[in-house]
């Protein structure tokens, strides 16, 4: 499918029409069992296609988690290809959660796989890991821009182990001397966090794009829930979407979204997988659960202007 328009515009329209929610398609073996399905490719396919049937006409963004499909080998990947194609056909924006990152020459192959017209795994956007260096993502950023697709780059992930690496301080203008770590948050005299430097690199790519750039970031909605202060991010110049996982099953709530994102809420796309999926296999129940979550987030965003 050729994308005639930039990703930022397509995402903005999808959220305006369908509301601010991404639902993850995560076929955990435990969920397959809870749905009365076999833990094999037939169960995987039934699970995933039920999600597409229930959600793809109403929810702005669907996020299949590649790992759960890869776990079944080539037959599982074939199911993923079908999920991507049919969900896009139904009008939802498909964000493939693959968290790819590698040296530039290998990134070019990932860009061909996920961000290039005609590839069986090409989605509307893909998650990327910048932890081989943001610059190593260049082939994917270029391919996304050229084909009207997007990327979501991991900045501050939702898992409790993330802060040690992503909260480490680096100089604000590298290369330079590594500053002493004194604060986990935005740029200060000691530098800025690794996560904030990812946000800054994304912002540079998005500069000048309207209504929104095509380089999003991932910032977990769970930040600060496990004690200690939540890192503060300067998101003012990002001009890109913020994917916020950790909503629902990992414990984050709408109150966390308000606490973490405040004035930037209009660009935040919370994503929830298990907390919605546990309402299946009934399609109507699954859809209702997703729409309830979406309405909760919409109400919060409206309250924040
Ligand atoms: O920081 C991150 C980045 C990605 N994820 C992914 O999102 C879903 C979350 O699933 P839930 O069932 O809603 O907890 C899952 O696919 C993760 O790999 C994340 O959780 N945190």
TrEMBL record:
<feature type="region of interest" description="Disordered">
    <location>
        <begin position="172"/>
        <end position="191"/>
    </location>
</feature>
<dbReference type="GO" id="GO:0004590">
    <property type="term" value="F:orotidine-5'-phosphate decarboxylase activity"/>
</dbReference>
<protein>
    <recommendedName>
        <fullName>Orotidine 5'-phosphate decarboxylase</fullName>
        <ecNumber>4.1.1.23</ecNumber>
    </recommendedName>
</protein>
<dbReference type="InterPro" id="IPR011060">
    <property type="entry name" value="RibuloseP-bd_barrel"/>
</dbReference>
<dbReference type="InterPro" id="IPR013785">
    <property type="entry name" value="Aldolase_TIM"/>
</dbReference>
<dbReference type="InterPro" id="IPR018089">
    <property type="entry name" value="OMPdecase_AS"/>
</dbReference>
<comment type="pathway">
    <text>Pyrimidine metabolism; UMP biosynthesis via de novo pathway; UMP from orotate: step 2/2.</text>
</comment>
<keyword id="KW-0665">Pyrimidine biosynthesis</keyword>
<comment type="similarity">
    <text>Belongs to the OMP decarboxylase family. Type 2 subfamily.</text>
</comment>
<keyword id="KW-0210">Decarboxylase</keyword>
<dbReference type="InterPro" id="IPR001754">
    <property type="entry name" value="OMPdeCOase_dom"/>
</dbReference>
<dbReference type="InterPro" id="IPR011995">
    <property type="entry name" value="OMPdecase_type-2"/>
</dbReference>
<dbReference type="GO" id="GO:0006207">
    <property type="term" value="P:'de novo' pyrimidine nucleobase biosynthetic process"/>
</dbReference>
<dbReference type="GO" id="GO:0044205">
    <property type="term" value="P:'de novo' UMP biosynthetic process"/>
</dbReference>
<keyword id="KW-0456">Lyase</keyword>
<feature type="domain" description="Orotidine 5'-phosphate decarboxylase">
    <location>
        <begin position="20"/>
        <end position="289"/>
    </location>
</feature>
<feature type="active site" description="Proton donor">
    <location>
        <position position="99"/>
    </location>
</feature>
<dbReference type="Pfam" id="PF00215">
    <property type="entry name" value="OMPdecase"/>
</dbReference>
């Amino acid at each position: 499918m050729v994308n005639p328009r930039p990703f930022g515009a397509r995402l903005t329209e999808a959220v305006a029409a369908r509301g601010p929610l991404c639902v993850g398609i995560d076929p955990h073996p435990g969920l397959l069992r809870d749905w009365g399905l076999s833990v094999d490719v037939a169960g995987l396919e039934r699970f995933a296609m039920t999600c597409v049937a229930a959600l793809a006409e109403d929810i702005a963004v669907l996020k299949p988690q590649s790992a759960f499909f890869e776990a079944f080998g080539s037959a599982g990947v074939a199911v993923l290809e079908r999920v991507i194609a049919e969900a896009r056909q139904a009008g939802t924006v498909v964000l493939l959660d693959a968290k790819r990152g590698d040296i530039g020459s290998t990134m070019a192959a990932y860009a061909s796989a996920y961000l290039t017209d005609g590839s069986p795994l090409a989605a509307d956007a893909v998650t990327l890991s910048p932890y081989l260096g943001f610059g190593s993502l260049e082939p994917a950023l270029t391919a996304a821009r050229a084909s009207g697709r997007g990327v979501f780059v991991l900045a501050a992930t939702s898992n409790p182990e993330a802060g040690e690496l992503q909260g480490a301080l680096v100089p604000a203008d590298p290369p330079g001397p590594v500053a002493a770590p004194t604060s986990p948050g935005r740029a200060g005299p000691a530098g800025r966090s690794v996560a904030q430097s990812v946000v800054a690199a994304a912002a540079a790519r998005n500069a000048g794009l309207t209504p929104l750039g095509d380089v999003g970031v991932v910032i977990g909605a769970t930040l600060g829930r496990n004690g200690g202060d939540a890192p503060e991010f300067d998101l003012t110049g990002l001009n890109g979407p913020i994917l916020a996982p950790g909503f629902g099953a990992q414990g984050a709530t709408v109150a966390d979204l308000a606490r973490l994102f405040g004035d930037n809420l209009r660009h935040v796309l919370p994503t929830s997988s298990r907390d919605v999926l546990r309402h299946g296999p009934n399609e109507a129940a699954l859809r209702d659960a997703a729409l309830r979550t979406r309405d909760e987030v919409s109400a919060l965003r409206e309250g924040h202007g």
